[in-house]
Amino acid sequence: MKYNIAVIRGDGIGPEVIAETIKVLNVIAERFGHTFNYEYLLAGGCAIDEEGTPLPNKTLEVCKKSDAVLLGAVGGPKWDNTNAKIRPEQALLGLRGALNLYCNLRPAVLYKPLKNESPLKDEIVKDGIDICIVRELTGGIYFGDRGVDIIDGVKSAYDTERYNVNEITRIVRIAFETSMKRNKKLTSVDKANILESSRLWRSIVNEMANEYKEVEVNHLYIDNAAMQIVKDPNQFDVIVTSNIFGDILSDEASMVTGSIGMLPSASLGEGTLGMYEPIHGSAPDIAGKRIANPLATILSSAMMLRYSFSLEKEAKAIENAVFSILEEGYRTGDIMTDGKELIGTVEAGNLICEKLKKGE
Ligand code: NAD
């Protein structure tokens, strides 16, 4: 099969981690008989420099027509002035909005060979962690009414959490479907003891549970969920939650896995078009040093194969290759420990390619 992939290298370590990912995808194409066409596009800081805007029209148009978007990272100190009207992150928000990507899938996986990377104790981590957070991405308080006004002579500011039934239904549906492909256990996180929008959220989860009788459903308040992730992360399989709660919980979950350089993400919408990117930023402190960990981006490409192209075998092959180089003791600097073999960005990519070529 033939697939068109819009590739945004971005800034900082973005181009370095993307280069390794493309090498890996090329090996997959050859081994499994697919054709991947890549179109390289500008977005983020480099686009501001070259085109005066973080998201040039051409980038947006090509992304819309592609089968998937693969992104490195955007941003850096050069463009980090908080007062600036034009900022690199606007490219991400612009792409999510224009492509109607309302669902963010963030697996927080701690592979067994990396268990010492977790800040949690051994007896809590046990054989590793594997949580998938499904976060609503285009609604709620980040997009609701907001403003600043004066009430009784005192300045005040407000933001509004608003969700409609359709917005909740479509994200909860993805969460149930994701649960069916995993361990059939779904935790919905809300603040239904206080928030009206959470009560609506909860009622929709309960209603849909009737359609997915095999899935074990439970509800947690956000404050309790935040505690439970550090107390006993293995009680979770899939977590579904709103935009703001998901923002916070997914960062917390990634911290308990210990390495930001290992975690992929997918942003999905109605059809099969999705945007795939590592959760880390452009890491300007290590850009150009050839030491960045490319595994989060390589694992993001595995998510792309699974969710946009339905290529499960191919996705698994990449994930297995990543697991095996970790098990053999290879580590980039960010996950290096005593007795392991230190490798750079390019070596990490090469090792994965070798595994895949051998059909391991
Ligand atoms: P960051 O994720 O770039 O870096 C945080 C720390 O983790 C740094 O010490 C970095 O060296 C390290 N790190 C990150 N990825 C790594 C990797 N693959 N391998 C090894 N080490 C890695 O976060 P930050 O420093 O807060 O942000 C830097 C820039 O990235 C900012 O301009 C920010 O706006 C931007 N950013 C972009 C995205 C995105 O493109 N999706 C996300 C977050 C931050």
TrEMBL record:
Major site of localization recorded for this protein: cytoplasm
Stored InterPro entries: IsoCit/isopropylmalate_DH_CS (IPR019818), IsoPropMal-DH-like_dom (IPR024084), Isopropylmalate_DH (IPR004429)
Annotated residues for binding of NAD(+): 76-89, 281-293
Residues marked Important for catalysis (site): 142, 191
Subcellular location: Cytoplasm
Molecular function as annotated in GO: 3-isopropylmalate dehydrogenase activity
Binding site for substrate: 96, 106, 135, 223
Domain of life: Bacteria
Catalysed reactions, as listed in the record: (2R,3S)-3-isopropylmalate + NAD(+) = 4-methyl-2-oxopentanoate + CO2 + NADH
Protein residues bound to Mg(2+): 223, 247, 251
Family from the record: Belongs to the isocitrate and isopropylmalate dehydrogenases family. LeuB type 1 subfamily.
Function noted in UniProt: Catalyzes the oxidation of 3-carboxy-2-hydroxy-4-methylpentanoate (3-isopropylmalate) to 3-carboxy-4-methyl-2-oxopentanoate. The product decarboxylates to 4-methyl-2 oxopentanoate.
Name this protein carries in UniProt: 3-isopropylmalate dehydrogenase
Organism of provenance: Clostridium weizhouense
